[in-house]
Structures are given as structure tokens and as C-alpha cells.
Amino acid sequence: MTGVYFHIPFxxxxxxxxxxxxxxxxxxxxxxxxxxxxAVLREMRLRRSSISRSGVDTVFFxxxxxxxxxxxxxxxxxxxxxxxxxxxxxAEISLEANPSSLKSGLFKEFRxxxxxRVSIGGQTFDDNLLKVLGRLHSSFDLEISIRSALEAGxxxxxxxxxFGFPGHSLQVLASDLLKAVELGAxxxxxxxxxxxxxTSMGDACLSGDLLCPxxxxxxxxxxxxxxxxxEKGYRHYEISNFALNGRVCLHNMNYWSYGEYVGFxxxxxxxxxxxxxxxxxxxxxxxxxxxKNVTPGIFLENLSxxxxxxxxxMLALRTDEGVNDEYFYGIFGRRFSEIFSVALKxxxxxxxxxxxxxxxxxxxxxxxxxxxxxxxxx
Length: 378
Hints:
By secondary structure, this protein is of the alpha/beta class. Helices cover about 40% and strands about 25% of the residues. The strands form four sheets. A nine-stranded mixed beta sheet has the order 9-10-8-7-6-5-4-1-11, sandwiched between helices. A hairpin with a 2-residue loop joins strand 12 (about 270) and strand 13 (about 275-280).
């Protein structure tokens, strides 16, 4: 599977917790946004050899807030990609969207432009906590967005929620999940809040001015979400992701399966031939380089075989499918159970990893400490 990612660094306003490479559109003028999109097209032309000629299976517009772009801009970008590498029939084409950037009927226009999956950044249905997070939309706006997306006929409608931030509680999470299920969201991403330095909320948490829920409260929230959503028919297929009826995000599954992907735009990452490239972070520098027909990649890492195997394990163990010993052998010519026999013996004795036939899986109750478990393979 081959994925393509487009980074759109524009948003309406920076949320108080956000550490992503993005900036409010008020800091840009229309010509800069046009220049940026033209730079993305130039990058595609310069790196066309990196895009699989056999076809692109997933496309993801992330950010930032990609829904601040017009459907026409999205369609133009997809047409350009298709001219360089055929977008496979039935490819998953996703767009991240925020209720504050969506006007009436816009979902239908994005659907016509080629988007067939949407992920709505809601974070919570609690109006007071939306203000705490610095979100511009209301719970009513969020509800209307979900309903409109479902009516537009996307293959899947997803909703992003956050838990564990200052002021959040198990009671609020329970209400958020119930509302999401009642509205019919087919995919739920539930991300645990992390206080990022150099964000207003993160700095306030790190200094002690704001208090987050305790580790015990976070564990209760995570376990509640797993149990509640499982009872409602959602598959807990990755640490932070739940899906109904096979509505898993194929683009993200490609990441966790160690698949190849090409990223376009400032800060975008690529993973090609098991080497990693990252573009310059500054959109202005990105535009400037591409006006000179210079590729914007600034970081290239060629991984050792052992590192590749460890990273594959780290990513696969994020999912409910875990590491398949036979599949691992097919990729690397060595068995996971042999290469990491010492680590596996230690982790299985502690119950942190279970073997189920050819698969090695982290039990869901240990998903919150998966990063510590994965360190054993890196």
C-alpha cells in the first residue's frame, strides 16, 4: 500500500494545546496561500519519481485545518496527483475538518471534489471545555457538522476527541462518547492530552498553574472508553482509534504497517525505500525553495536492518493485530520471535505481550504504556 499526505499549515486560530506546525490564516494573505498551494504542485512535479507508478491507495489532507481550503483547491491538488501517479480505484481520500471552518453545504462540495472520508476535529461536546481548549466552535456546531457529513454520503465519518486535559473528567468523557455514538460517528479517535511545551495550555500544566487528571483517573477514562465503545460495536483497532463495520482509517493503518508514504508540504514526512525524509518546517522557506525548483527535504535517515525491524515492531504493536511472525519473516527474512527472543521472554513473563498463534499482541489494558513496551525493541 502507498499513501500520500498533504500538509496544510493553515487554521483559523491556534488552539491552546496545539503543537502542530500550523498558523492562523490571519497571519497569511490570500497570495501566500495561493503560493503555498502552487509550491505543493511544484514539489509533486519535482518528486514525481517518488510517487508509486503502480497507484496511490490512500490520500490524506492534514494540518492545520485543511477544510479552510476551497473544494476547488482540493480538487486541483487531487487532479495533479492523479496526473503523476494514478489514484487507485476505491482509494481512501481523507480530509481533516473543523466545525469552525465549515459553512453550510461545504461537506457536499468536498465530496464532489473527491474526498470520500472526513475526520472532524471536535475534541469535546462540552461548551465550557471547548473554551478551555481554545476551540472556536460550539457543541451545536459540532453536532451539525457530524450530521451534515453523514448526509453528504462519505464512505466514513470520523470524529476526534481529547481526554485527560485540565477540567476534563470521566463523566464528561462518558457524555462525549455517548453523544458521538448517538450521532452515528463511524470512526472515533480518542487522544490523551499531553502538555506540549511552548503551547499556552502545555506551559500552564508544566508550571502547575493548571492541573490535569491523575494517572489513575486517566486509566479509568481509557478503560471506560474501551469497554463502552466495544459494547457499542466499535473495534479498538489501535491505541487511540475505534471503528464501526470496518471503517478503519487505511491511511493510518499504512503507517502502522510500515508501509511507504510520500508527504508534500511544509513539515511533511516521507518514508520511501525504508528511508525517512522531512520537509522544512517554515511554509515561507518551503515556498522559497520551490520557487527555485529546489526540493524542500531537510532530513534523510537511512535505517539499519535492526532499526527497521524494531520500528516495525513498535508500530505494529500499537494495533490489535500486533506483530505477525510470518509477515515479519516475509519482510525481513528473519523471525520476530528469534530476533527479539530476549525482549519477548521478558515482556510475556510480565503479561505485557501475549502470543496468539503467529501473532504477538499488547493486551488492550496495557495500550497506555505501549511506548514503554516498544522501547524494548528499539
